[in-house]
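Revision sheet: structure tokens.
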Amino acid sequence: MSTPPPAPSDAATLRGRRVVLVVAVLASFVAFLDGSIVTVALPAIARELGTGTGGGATADDGAGLALQQWVVDAYLLTLGSLMLVAGSLSDTFGRVRVLRAGLIGFAVTSVLAALAPDPGLLIAARALQGVTAALLVPSSLALITSTFSGPAQGKAIGSWTAWTGVAFLIGPLTGGALVDTLGWRWVFAVVVVPVVLTLVLMTRLPGDAHRGRDGAPPRVDVVGAVLAAVGLAGPVFALIEGQRVGFGTWFVVTPLVVGLAALAAFVWWERRSPAPMMPLTLFRTRTFTVGNLATVGIYAALSLGTLTIPLVVQELAGLTATLAGLVTLPTTIVSLLFSTLFGTLAATHGPRPFMTAGPLITASGFLWMLMVADPIDVWWQVVPGVVLFGFGLSVTVAPLTSTVLSQIPAGQSGIASAVNNAISRVAGLVAVAFLGVIAGGALTVGGFHRVVIVVAVLLGVSALVSFVGLRDRTRAS
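Predicted:
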């Protein structure tokens, strides 16, 4: 007997869900693409704007190096520090509304960056880009979790994870081609294309009926928002500048202390506020708390590992930047192939086995690279480990994201997603800040081995946290 076609209403629902998924993927894709596409343009930016007076600097000049760092860091600073605020706004005023505002703002600030005539305006435009990008990721994930449920939600988050990861693949390739042909300014301008496409698709989404949590009128926790922004911006700024000027200077210590004090005040305020920006009751949800604890180790390890591998294959093995990109290419391909599958399986069978096995598989991929020795054979000592690491990542990331959001009420999914994103970014920044200490001051073969061991230990701890902290599907039911 053939299966009858879906009723018109069912078909309309499926089409609507498909549009939601595409919009969520494209919105996050834009933010991730901007982070990856800009890196290859940094030398060209430094050559043109590095002196601050119209060009002439090289990438190695002090002015050029500082400019390169802040073109990246200005974006990361505002993105990381405003993530919680953006997630709260998503819950308060609606995902579609906040997402649309973020996309329009991102397009405008991208054009400002493309037209920037001097370093100061370029860095300011990048900081504003980070502000608008902060509105995109929590809102896009909240859009998915408020639209899909059960195994369909796991599959949708798997697709979101896989396709947003493609941004890291095509970003450097696209950026390199644009820099070599049209110039570095097009690296910023080209981002407008997917933004416009996303905004057109969003016209097919219904407007937000959501007004505040639990049906209450919208209300912004201004004190909490300020404390959260300062509390995250201070430590993030200290971590960024500490890598450049050292962690013992007042210029680094002061924002670190002020930021940590603001975070403590934020927790105190959120416990007493009648309408908190981040309800601390979120952490009473076991899967949310355990998932975020696992996030710390997983994303610290990934940030440390994915930064080190390209450096090793270029600086120690002598590969070109293009070949170094090809070495890490399998990670994205494997993730694209398997993330949706493991997101679906985790939603069906529970996240515990995947969040336990996934980090261990990822760790085994890095441990494979302990075979690295002079002279380095990249294609045997590194690439198989990268493939294994990519597969472990596929097993881990979609189930992790699903787990963090799976038992959170729809009205709080924006702030829940923002908490997880903020934790992952700060964990990555902390790990990268200690790269020099872990490697022993220089990235030698021995230093790389030490990095690999630390990465494997972090992943092993995250696997243990997931195994002990999560309940399997049969016990949970």
